[in-house]
Automatic annotation (TrEMBL):
It catalyses: L-aspartate + ATP = 4-phospho-L-aspartate + ADP. Substrate binds at T47, E74. It comes from Demequina lignilytica. Residues 268-353 form the ACT domain. Catalyzes the phosphorylation of the beta-carboxyl group of aspartic acid with ATP to yield 4-phospho-L-aspartate, which is involved in the branched biosynthetic pathway leading to the biosynthesis of amino acids lysine, threonine, isoleucine and methionine. This is Aspartokinase. GO terms for molecular function: aspartate kinase activity; ATP binding. It is an enzyme of class 2 (transferase). GO terms for cellular component: cytosol. Belongs to the aspartokinase family. One of its GO terms (biological process) is homoserine biosynthetic process. ATP binds at K7, Y8, G9, G10, T174, D175, R185, K210, V211. Keywords: Amino-acid biosynthesis, ATP-binding, Diaminopimelate biosynthesis, Kinase, Lysine biosynthesis, Nucleotide-binding, Transferase.
Amino acid sequence: MSLVVQKYGGSSVADAAAIRRVAARVVDTVRAGNDVVVTVSAMGDTTDELIDLANEVTTAPDPREMDILLTAGERISMALLAMAINSAGIPAQAFTGPQAGVITTEHHGRARIIDVAPGRLQRALSQGRVAIVAGFQGLNQETQDVTTLGRGGSDTTAVALAAALGADVCEIYTDVDGVFTADPRIVPAARKLTRITYEEMLDLAASGAKVLMPRCVEYARRFNVPVHVRSSFSGLEGTWVTDGTEEGDDMEDPIIAGVAHDRSEAKITVTGVPDVPGSAARLFEAVARADVNIDMIVQNVSATNTGVTDISFTLPQASIPAAIAAIEGDHEGIGYAALATDDTIGKISLVGAGMRSNSGVSAKFFAALRDAGVNIEMITTSDIRISVVTRDADLEKGVKAVHTAFDLDSTEGEAVVYGGTGR
């Protein structure tokens, strides 16, 4: 008997018919001889609707009360799914995140899981029940307040439960058949990957691939949890995310795992920064105090006759107000002349472990963008990733051009997106 943790996203439990379909899949897994724990997201667009409702009530929702509100979406899903499974003749019991033993930090809206005490889940399993857990939420033990984990938190919940329970696999069900070499909404000829390493998947996720969230992959890598990304709308084998050391696995890996893109970032340029030691430190210390995550950084070489330089960096669009306020609040200390924002950028990333041992990857990547007429504004690299910032209007043609240049296009027809969101 295996222990299987399954996670179903919002599109997989979008309505009553979808919930019954998920229940049937869970029942089949149980009848195949497995113990099953299920993590669910809120139905469809419930979370967005709750956020909109809160913003209609007040322009500044209290973070604590917001977390209490948003956890309602997953509670609805877990209860309905437990009812559906029970009606199919398999005993099931629903648990909130706190009831399931998910312990978090106290940061409302972006808490991190620090421990899982799965005693109640283990008792339910020992009684022959399916345990249904509300994803995206947990409890801070010091404040005794419910917290939420941020977007994609249900993925992280599922992997954390799998690690704590010693599960044989964590199945992440979504509305595509697995991890593809590019977003199939942008590149219909994208190819499904059979396997991908934690390292590659982490870089793809961090670069904008939305099929898995970075924190989920990071947690799986840390505790070596095998993740199987599958579609809840088909019975096809999906993509396995592992450490890449499986016995008998053909690990003569392709050079490139995939092409990711991201439209959610913006760029801030701080001009006239004194080109002296400590200037960059003061700038980014101010941004850090505002709790803003920074992605790419470029500093221009200063002209010898001016003694000043320009520094550009990218960050989430939602963080622009906080970053600007922090920089302007330390204007005198930083000593800059002006700052400008740009929210019409896009990021294209090429990811593959094979880059380490293959020359010419960068040349082919930049040549593909050149031939597609895509101008590059910023560049950053790691040993398995190249990322560039372009104009948002050029993003799609750039992704398609790079995908084709590296022979990633499938010859087996277009990829299917069942639910339309990729989650």
